[in-house]
Amino acid sequence: MVSLYETPTRRKPLKDPFNHFMFIFSHRICRSSTEFLFRNKYTLRRWSCPLHKCYGITKQQRIVKTRFPLLYCLANTSVDESTKDSGNVKNASQPLPNIASWKRQLKVASYFFLWYAFNIIYNISNKKLLNAYPFPWTVAWVQLAVGVLYVVPLWLFHIRKAPYIQLDDIKRLLPVAAAHTVGHISTVVSLGAVAISFTHVVKALEPFVNVLASAVILRSVFPIPVYLSLLPVVGGVIMASVTELSFTWTGFIAAMLSNFAFTGRNIFSKISMNDQTSYKHMSPANLFAVLTILSTILLLPVAFVWEGPKLYPGWILATSGKTTSMQLITWLLTSGLFFYLYNEVAFYALDSVHPVTHSVGNTMKRVVIIITSLWVFKNPITRANAIGSAIAIGGVLLYSLTKYYYSQKIK
To answer: TM spans, by residue (predicted)?
Structure first.
């Protein structure tokens, strides 16, 4: 794109419907700016996106010409001092900071809302499915496969840039994908064996496992207050476990195994993904998509051997009562789609806010899921269990804040 000094020439006037079309279509073409120019008869008119005001503009202003003959963009340009000080554009540039701030706040709020909503839908549909059809290995594989069916068309139709990965890159990603697979299947097994609330309380111990693994494997040591901040997490989980009415060792061990698996995934990622120069278009969302594809391939033979012969009799038994085949299929597809979506939105939320804000949001997410699951499934809960859960989740927030404080102090 080349900057130039433009002087209007005589053209055929544009009709109002076309003006409106260019007004809407320009927002899709040039996402880097909220303002657009196109020529109408002898004047240049500047339009903002539909949520904002329209501003007039002088005929003599420095602009950027695009490949569209009637469409001009103000992105990545600056008006010279004489034009900037002129009365015609003085008022036009003032509202832009407020507009940008308002748009960013709306975007971040939408990420967090979708993150919470998708997570709740996944947990509820997943639990209903496992209550009626208790085959967690198959359910976990279908959920991964649905994610593959979602992301591959995005690449094929060029809605999202597909990553270019070589065989060596896949070899480096295999340990990460294996840990991701173990973490996902362990979580599904735990959600099927115990209440959703208890699974999420146990998964609150993941920072504790992270700290231990970082010290042993990565030789990364934190200040003593960081370790002390994890004591409420451990105490709260112990208190919640001994008072949990739906407690089973299968559910507890599976939830703890998911903590170790996801910690391993993070460590393998740090070890194998330090040099990303060989990756093209490997955004966090694309990285998760590639991991999902690899996990789907890894889990398929294991799930078939473990539960394959039991699937059809189990389906007949599940649909012989109040549950219909359509309900099972709906829960399968819904849990798979929203499992993928909530993980993808979580990446966008993490990239949009401060790490502390993300940690607070992640802590509140568990609170919202626990409260929602108790309301939907009417699970009984004791006072001691509620106190222990609150202490554990509050300890996670304390750990996040303490860790960030000392990381900034070291810098």
So the answer is: 108-125, 137-157, 221-240, 246-264, 285-306, 326-342, 387-406
**209-225 pLDDT, tens per residue?**
988 888 888 788 888 99
CA distance 146 to 142: 6
Contact between residue 362 and residue 399 where contact means Cβ atoms under 8 Å apart: no
Q: Which percentage of the chain shows pLDDT scores above 70?
A: 72
Looking at residue 273, what is its pLDDT?
59
Q: Which two tokens stand for residue 396?
A: 């996670």
Cα–Cα distance between 102 and 21 in angstroms, integer?
Answer: 25
Residue 325 corresponds to which tokens in the numbers above? Answer: 């085949």
pLDDT value at residue 285: 84
> What is the spatial distance between Cα 343 and Cα 335, in angstroms, rounded to a whole number?
12
User: Closest by alpha carbon to 335, among 81, 142, 187, 92?
Assistant: 142
| Cα–Cα distances in angstroms (integers) from residue 98 to residues 24, 53, 95, 357, in the given order | 21, 12, 6, 22
Angle at 101 between CA 342 and CA 78, to 5 degrees: 120
Q: How far is it, in rounded angstroms, from Cα 105 to Cα 32? A: 16
Neighbours of 114 (CB within 10 A): 17
User: Angle 321-324-328 (CA atoms, 0-180°, nearest 5)?
Assistant: 115
CA 269 to chain CA centroid, nearest Å:
17
pTM of the predicted model, to two decimals? 0.72
pLDDT at 240 over 80: yes
Question: How many Cα atoms are found within 13 Å in the side-chain-facing hemisphere of 187?
Answer: 24
Return the minimum-mean-pLDDT range out of 91-100, 280-289, 353-362, 368-377.
91-100
pLDDT of amino acid 411: 61
Q: Which two tokens stand for residue 19?
A: 């003006």
Q: Tokens 């996106």 sit at which residue?
A: 49
For the purposes of burial, counting CB atoms within 10 Å of the CB of 227, is it exposed (0-12), middle (13-18) or buried (19 or more)? middle
Q: What is the pLDDT of residue 279?
A: 59
Beta bridge partners of 56: 45
Q: Which two tokens stand for residue 188?
A: 């599904």
Structure tokens given for 320? 């012989």
CB contact at 8 A, 295 and 174: no
Q: Residue 44: left if φ>0, alpha if ψ -120 to 50, beta else—which one?
A: beta
